[in-house]
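Exercise 7.
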Amino acid sequence: MSAKKSAQKESLLALANVESFYGPIMAIRGVSLSVPPHGMTAVLGANGAGKTTILKTISGIMEPAKGQILFQGEAIGGADPSFVARQGIAHVPEGREVFPFLSVRDNLRMGAYIRRDKEAIGGDLERVHAYFPILKRRADQPAGHLSGGEQQMLAIARGLMARPKLLLLDEPSLGLSPLLMKEIFDIIRRVNGEEGVAILLVEQNAPMALRTARYGYVLENGRIVLDDSCERLSRHADIRDFYLGGGEVGERGERRWKRRKSWG
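Solution. The predicted structure, written as tokens, is:
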């Protein structure tokens, strides 16, 4: 067995040469990545790189045109989103997408909609309240009345109410202040470390993603161009120059890109 096939077999989630389209436009091409059990993996890239498409393809919102998606060794590519969710994958989409007219409490209960162990849901409400105390204080308020940061907390907490084995997080830092961003990423680390929930984190904020995840993939124009541990990626010359703001600066303050990316 090859090292690549062995890694896929040992992974909680494994994608192999996955391609997805928006109409005639290929959004991701030949994407292969994996997430280990209880691990945290990041996908970095600029807007339009295809990061959200990867998550939508995993969760069943989009159907892959090619390739294989395995979760716990079983093929889920092209499966209905409800089936994917029942296998233990919770998708927290970009832009929060809470139910604005439902109360915070009912939003959280919607996260547990597919569960059959209804007697345990009350305990899990207390569990997510421990991570997000503000949601307990806002329990009776309509979710649409929450601030942007509180809605992001609610979206993550709603995902946790499904008791997932894998949490797909799409741009959790989007639109947040630096203080709120730090708070939410601290909670993401706790959820991964304390609950053992594996996380696939899609994030444009490369510095925050590299400090949070253990392994990372860099996506450009729908394809993976680089992958390594986040520690090594943070020291990679191209990552520093093009994603961490380490490029040369000219006399007038403009950034001068004197070289092409090594994967260009």
